[in-house]
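Most newcomers find our protein records easier to grasp once they have seen one. To make this concrete, we reproduce a full record directly below:

…
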Amino acid sequence: MPELKVVLIPEGLDGERVDVAVARMLGLSRSKIIDLIQQRHVLLDGVPVAKSDRARTGSMLEVTIPERRDELAVVPQAVPGLDVLFDDDHIVVIDKPVGVAAHPSVGWSGPSVLGHLAAAGVRVSTSGVPERQGIVQRLDVGTTGLMVVAKSELAYSVLKQAFRSRAVEKTYHALIQGHPDPFTGTIDAPIGRHPGADYKMAITTGGRPSITHYETLEAFVGTTLLEVNLETGRTHQIRVHFAALRHPCVGDVFYGADPVLADRLGLERQWLHAVRLAFTHPVTGEPMSFSSPYPADLRRALDIVQSW
């Protein structure tokens, strides 16, 4: 429940800015107080204040502190367009739409795969840190396509090892700017945190080994459709590798793509889709293979470049 604090302004704070007075009386940070003021949670004599308003002795100050939300908690939330392709006692395979994270993370308030599964009553493995339980692979929020999630502890252990040993086939299609040289090749370059922005990834000398194989499916005017197979699975791997070659995924303005081209194609995210996923079932040993068609926004963009 929200917490309400009601206090009278003492003489010692008469004339102080309200944000300073509240910070001193309640022991909250100035940035927190400013957030509360902007949300109209700070009242002086019943009237919402601005941070530059002045406190007056004897005035009644009311501060409502909203209930803290655990950003890493898995919140059950059904996600329209998230399809379950396979589900048994050990694994669940899903086709993830755009705008959905694999799991909760700091700074992300949108839906997640784990939240959708929780809303559907699907119990996942308890292995892994709490906000990533059952997650053996991830897709970026802006990347669509196939994912497998472990439901049993055995499946989690076996699948994690399968991904580590590169026994899982992960195939993506990417529309990139320009034409790669050669048209078929391998990118072997280590990936780590960007030295100037820790929310981005980059090719760095101290990064983790990262290997991307690609071949051209079709070349268009100014763009190329590639089939990409990952030997490793680093964060943003495909996006970083092709951006480093100056052939970023179309629409991926985060990694240097042309925003004008993205606008012409109606893209609000990178053109990148996990089209196939193949692995051995972690318990039965049965070969498993799944495919996913392009979602509407990628299909529309591809139709446009094919017409040029």
In short: The CA atoms of residues 97 and 144 lie 5 Å apart. The helical segments are 18-26, 30-38, 113-119, 153-164, 237-244, 259-264, 296-307.
